[in-house]
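Provenance and format

Records in this collection were gathered into a single text stream. Each protein contributes a sequence line and a token line. The two records reproduced below are adjacent in the stream.
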Amino acid sequence: MEGVTQAVNGLSLNNSRKRYRIQVSNTKKPLFFYVNLAKRHMQLHNEIELSALGMAIATTVSIAEILKNSGLATVKQIMTSTVDIQDESRARPLQKAKIAILLGKTEEFDELMAAAAAEVRGGVQGDEHN
């Protein structure tokens, strides 16, 4: 019985770490809205998951590449699948491609974000003096 209790306690510890998920749409918000949202949430969480269906997959890959190429994130995992979407006009469910990209902070993340914030503050102060 003690072994079962330890196993259950171990499961609850592993499941307590939840990922922060951003569901990307290519019609609702512009690309850099999601880039900035990802940056803000990476300040709070060590890793985030970008998720998208269908045509939004290209937008999601672009977001991940922007974050990766700017030195803010590393790609930890890429998961692909298909999901069944029920369409009222069709009798059968429609299958859509799905992607989930797990991103983690780089070691330089905090330094890069602080430098970017200082640059913005410097630009705002410079504008006030003109």
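Adjacent record:
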Amino acid sequence: MGKVIDFSAKERRLDEAYPLDSERGIYALLTQLHHVGESRFLRGDYDASLLLLDLAQSMAEANLTHRQKQALKLVFIQDFIQKDAAHWMNISQQAVSEHVRSAIQRIALVNEEKEVA
């Protein structure tokens, strides 16, 4: 008999590590955004590309405010610490934290609603 290859194993591992219907999964993905993005090119990881596209679509559907988008960009894409992001946005560090938290909640909610439908 031949060897059985599970082509969807990598996709399942990503879905388990970064479930987009939970705040924990979204936060984990955002903190590993650069790593997941690099794996698309370094390892030819097609599933990582799909995961990032799903995240981008979920963010668009979540109708985030300008401040929420700005906080996510500064903290997770530009790798600012929240204190520096707060200084750049001219708000408190606590406000940056709240923008990040509420954005992640909205993204998770969009994906929870997709699961139910």
